[in-house]
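Table 4 source record.
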Amino acid sequence: MPTKPPAPHTILMVVFPGFLLLDAAGPLQVFAMADQEAAQAHSAPRYRLRTVSSTGGLITSSCGLAIQTEALPRPASLKHATLIVAGGDGTEAAMRDKRLIRWLQAASQQVTRCCSVCTGAFVLAQAGLLDGRRAVTHWQDLPLLRQLFPQVRLLDDAIHVRDGHVHTSAGVTAGIDLCLSLVEADHNRALSLRVAKRLVVPLRRAGGQRQFSADLLAQEAEHEGVTGQLLQWLQPRLKQAIKVADMAHAMALSERTLHRQVLAQTGQTPARFLASLRLERACRLLEAGPTSLKRVVRDSGFGSEDKLRRCFQQRLGVSPGDYAARFSSGRTRS
């Protein structure tokens, strides 16, 4: 007697007026393609995709395209579902939608996974779902999220992060990375890789990898002067002990002026910018292949293994050893 296929797993995408279209469409396409790939292997569809909003009906995205949505379903009907909140320009208004926030609080108690894409993290935080949890959002919005919700344990650079049953992801396409990891958990790595290939995205961008390059930010700001010059001065000196006063002196500026200009051009203070450059160098060393943490500490200028580990945990949510295991061609020696 043939066995009955399992019931499809509901993927509930939550949108609101002014949501970012790719925040919703990208993740949903991952699950749709996963079912297509599974069908080629003669497996039953795993996912049921639903898009919901506070009011139901047509909801217009930030680019002007509208999508049809259902009204918010009863939370009790969402057992074993995955809930994903999109981000976008309408996030601030969504945070004031008391009906939506109350529904999220109730629904989060029923679903298997509660997720956000980009600034959707603000909506989860408003509902109290990120209190005491590690989380991430788009790097440009991290300072505001940290200011509004100091109880959230924010990671600066991670692509996506899981804390319990709550998953948050960084800007825009990071939602695709998150959902590829969910497909891998539901199926296997091989199927997730096939979906990634069809989407022409790198499956290797896993949780714990950096969102952006401080080096790139400096290059973009180079025409504005100070940050590009500071980058050129810092790069050959990362092994040295460097203070903000040293940077200001090298740029012939006061510390206050240097702080203001670097913050305006990169979104980071000079000290944090230096730490970002050191983190990038450490990551590159770990990605290059087998090496010792002592060498990574020495060549990146962290000064001690404890400072290196602390920076990795605070910024990426992983240890240097875990990072090497995910992204390098060999094992890092302690």
